[in-house]
Design goal:
The longest helix has 20 residues. The protein has three domains: about 120 residues, D-Maltodextrin-Binding Protein, domain 2; about 90 residues, Periplasmic binding protein-like II (D-Maltodextrin-Binding Protein, domain 2, 3-Layer(aba) Sandwich); about 70 residues, Alpha-Beta Plaits. The chain is of the alpha/beta class. It has eight helices and 15 strands. The structure holds phosphoribosyl ATP and zinc ion.
């Protein structure tokens, strides 16, 4: 049995549960429960506040966890980051009132000397200030950090930014990005062999599910004399699959393509004579 800690509610909860489902691990969406059990895998799920996850994994109350890299860095917990999970993207940035730096590129770190900075991430900020040789006062605040400058609590803030909308609506500009973050799978170093083997099985499934994201399976018929042009448009995993059609001079081509460039690829394929184009979802890619 292996025990996984995930966020009980909040931004990472749904995507964490979806990744488990995509990996074929069914857990009851027990938002109000503290501990749940997977139906078809030797896994227990511990539902926690995200701040507590790195420490709980380091202490051994859970073996592995899904949490933002920002929390791992802030807590400094003795855990290993075993996978980036490609959701919960954000950055930890410094922001100041727009009135101070109307052009953010004019900002220089030494401006912070002697100033006060509000944040919920004092440890990461301290490291940045020390590395930049700046002596500034850190004011630790839990929540609504973005109102600190307008409230006269601090000169600048150091907070999570995603779209940047919160900064704009509070009259702030981002002047330096200090840490890029996303959700990660963490593990306690030196897991016993039985738990390590379960972690490997989970990683194998996560990788297959993550690899298939943003990918589509494309099938089409194409005149055989245009095949080379089609190949140059398709960057398949190894090379596209080609099968002859019953009609002479025509072939069927199958390939995996990036969803982001799907329509562009389809338009170009049509332009070289592709017909009967089918676009299918890719559920898993197992390497
Ligand atoms: O209750 P619990 O302690 O578990 O949750 P929480 O309230 O501390 O965290 P939660 O659910 O807000 O976020 C969990 C994790 O999601 C964070 O630790 C990050 O790793 C990640 N994440 C991704 C974000 C954001 N994007 C995000 N935009 N966490 C917070 N925000 C907040 C940010 O604090 C700011 O107030 O959203 C605002 C900025 O968003 P934009 O889009 O306006 O820039
Ligand atoms: Zn939290």
């Amino acid at each position: 049995m292996i025990r996984l800690a995930i966020q009980s509610k909040g931004r990472l909860n749904e995507d964490s549960l979806k990744l488990l489902r995509d990996a074929g691990i069914g857990v009851d969406d027990a938002k109000r429960k503290f501990l749940g059990k997977a139906e078809n895998f030797p896994l227990e799920v511990l539902y926690l506040r995200d701040d507590d996850i790195p420490g709980v994994v380091a202490d051994g109350a859970a073996d592995i966890g899904i949490v933002g890299l920002n929390e791992v860095a802030e807590t400094g917990a003795a855990v290993e980051t075993v996978r980036k999970l490609a959701f919960g993207h954000c950055r930890l940035s410094l922001a100041v009132p727009k009135t101070v730096f109307p052009a953010p590129e004019d900002f220089f770190p030494a401006w912070l000397q002697g100033k006060s900075i509000a944040t919920s991430y004092p440890r990461i900020l301290r490291k940045y200030l020390d590395e930049s040789g700046i002596d500034a006062e850190i004011r630790e605040i839990r929540g609504s950090v973005e109102i600190a400058p307008a409230a006269g609590i601090a000169d600048a803030i150091f907070d999570i930014v995603s779209s940047g909308g919160t900064l704009v609506s509070n009259g702030l500009v981002e002047v330096a990005s200090v840490l890029r973050s996303e959700a990660v799978l963490i593990a306690r170093p030196g897991l016993p062999a039985e738990k390590q083997a379960l972690l490997e099985r989970i990683l194998f499934r996560f990788d297959a599910a993550l690899e298939s994201r943003g990918k589509k399976y494309l099938l089409m018929n194409i005149p055989t004399d245009r095949l080379q042009e089609a190949f140059s448009l398709l960057q398949a995993m190894r090379s596209p699959t080609v099968m002859p059609l019953a009609i002479p001079g025509w072939s069927s081509v199958h390939s995996v393509v990036e969803e982001a460039s799907l329509w562009q690829t389809v338009e170009r394929l049509k332009a070289i004579g592709a017909e009967g184009i089918l676009v299918l979802n890719v559920d898993k890619i197992i390497d």
